[in-house]
Write a structure and sequence with these properties.
Layout: E1 2-6, E2 9-12, E3 17-24, E4 31-38, E5 45-50, E6 58-60, E7 68-73, E8 78-83, E9 92-100, E10 117-118, E11 122-127
Parallel strand pairs: 2-11
Antiparallel strand pairs: 1-3, 3-8, 4-5, 4-9, 5-6, 7-8, 9-10, 9-11
């Protein structure tokens, strides 16, 4: 699976951005998808994940709950991260990742080690 993330940019605090991650190469619909981020000087951390069936099979790190929404469009082989009410501490390079889920529609891992495929990252900068 090849992943291409886009949609990052510079935004003021309180603003919104939508990240996209386009997948190609294998059957997108059997992969759980995740978003991770790495802030300057920090380790990469989990942000959100979604099972291949979408819907309620989503997980979020506590700091983004209520502000970020992960979704997917299997027909377009794309996963999205809608980010609202952005804060300066959301500044980071955001990475999308894919984890093979096979028949497990509920599978939406939060651990980085579960993801075998990674996109190149897109930079989000939130100014105060």
């Amino acid at each position: 699976v090849q992943l291409q993330a886009s949609g990052g940019g510079l935004v003021q605090a309180g603003g919104s951005l939508r990240l996209s991650c386009a997948a190609s190469g294998r059957t997108f619909s059997i992969y759980a998808m995740g978003w991770f981020r790495q802030a300057p000087g920090k380790e990469r951390e989990f942000v959100a994940s979604i099972g291949w069936s979408g819907g309620s099979n989503t997980y979020y790190t506590n700091s983004v709950k209520g502000r970020f929404t992960i979704s997917r469009d299997n027909a377009r082989n794309t996963v999205y991260l809608q980010m609202n009410n952005l804060k300066p501490e959301d500044t980071a390079v955001y990475y999308c990742a894919a984890a093979y889920a096979h028949a497990r529609s509920f599978y939406a891992p939060v651990e980085e080690v579960s993801y075998a495929y990674w996109g190149q990252g897109t930079l989000v900068t939130v100014s105060s």
